[in-house]
User: What shape does this take?
Amino acid sequence: MEAKLPAIDASWALFLDRDGVINRRLPGAYVRAWEEFEWLPGAAPAIALLSRAFGWVFVVTNQQGIGKGLMGEPALDSIHRRMLAEVEAAGGRIDGIYFCPALASERPNCRKPGPAMALQARRDFPDIDFRRSLMVGDTLPDMAFGHQLGMFNVLVAAGEEGAELSIRAGKDGIRVGALIGSLAELPAVLGLHG
Ligand SMILES: [Mg+2]
Assistant: This one.
């Protein structure tokens, strides 16, 4: 897909989905402990490059495993502390991690595609502008979240899955600015260099 992405500077915010973008998604399961958190190749160095270009870097993640009682918030906090430490060790920065523990069946809820996590980020960081924001995710709800907030969208999906999701996004009227196979590709797609 041809990239239709803006030039990034420090007035821009980056919103990253977690599972399937930063770490390997566990099909039908939740990352409940650090031992189950597997970095996707090149993700941490990519976050380091991205965090030098963007003014803010956020993680926005649905974590329904908490609502289901499969894990607790202390376990999630512990995973995120380790993740942050490794991002910092790679020379990167994450300014905020927002998670939604709610069940998909709860109404209303904070889950993507709903805007609650982005709105909380804006309460915490009032200078961010969603029109100067990039959302990176691996699912249609991620893309719907970015689209509804007026962000630029980047879909992370390889091969046939990427092609299929792009077509479905188009049918749903959801703009996707670029399709990449992994977060590791994003710095180069944005013209950022180490
Ligand atoms: Mg995901």
